[in-house]
Design goal:
globular; mainly alpha; 3-stranded antiparallel beta sheet
């Protein structure tokens, strides 16, 4: 249940002239929210109002009040650190890497038996190999992103990608993956591997089908998540 301020009373005097507009409580956690209704978004106060010294005590209506501990007051250095973290997490590269890591790791685990020796390998060895492969997938993701950025001259194309940009992104990833697979299975890459008999191969190229399907399926999902996350950042920034 959301507890709201008296709409006629206006925001607390301590907040006047600052970026915060009003205060609310959701499930015992304090939030800054839009003035009308105090319902959305459910964003922690620290993400909305960097200066907790603004709010020492205020009324939430219905006889409910809260107090912020002065020990939570942030220094200018804290402000700078939080701002830099927010700027980093809002970059398209950060979001691409995060979702690439989260989405590619399960795929790597599922396709592990398609590589020689992985089906009988200890779990620790399989997890280690899959983590390394996932990091490689993240690097390929950044390279594909850089190729589209070089063509479009737009760093944030991934926030609202057109179908051409999305198709180019997937195509670049498939091309890079195909080259890496071709070199690695022939002992000409930093790391080498071989396919098991269960791996379907592309005739004429002798490249595993699963790594290429990975780039047909996972990147579009990652782009959807990045676009959704970027829209959230824009909505939050618009309320500051």
């Amino acid at each position: 249940m959301t507890l709201g301020l008296d709409e006629q009373a206006g925001p607390p005097a301590a907040c006047l002239g600052h970026s915060c507009q009003c205060l609310g409580v959701w499930g015992g956690t304090h939030y800054l929210t839009p003035w009308c209704g105090l319902k959305v978004p459910r964003v922690p106060l620290l993400e909305w109002c960097l200066d907790l010294r603004l709010v020492e005590r205020y009324s939430l209506g219905n006889g409910v009040s809260c107090r912020w501990n002065r020990a939570l007051a942030l220094t200018p250095m804290d402000h700078t650190a939080i701002r830099r973290v927010r700027e980093l997490t809002a970059t398209p590269e950060f979001n691409l890497v995060v979702f690439a890591l989260l989405l590619n790791f399960p795929w790597e685990v599922l396709q592990a038996p398609l590589f020689e020796g992985m089906a009988a390998a200890p779990h620790s060895a399989v997890i280690s190999a899959c983590l390394q492969a996932t990091l490689g997938d993240a690097v390929i993701t950044l390279l594909a992103h850089a190729s589209i950025m070089a063509v479009t001259r737009r760093r944030r194309w991934v926030c609202v990608p057109s179908w051409r940009e999305a198709a180019g992104f997937v195509a670049a990833g498939i091309a890079i993956t195909a080259v890496v697979e071709w070199l690695a299975t022939r002992g000409q890459w930093v790391q080498t591997w071989t396919y098991s008999s269960a791996m379907p191969l592309i005739p004429g190229f002798e490249i595993g089908l699963s790594p290429l399907l990975q780039w047909l399926i996972v990147p579009p999902i990652a782009l959807w998540f990045v676009r959704r996350q970027s829209a959230r950042h824009r909505s939050v920034d618009g309320l500051h």
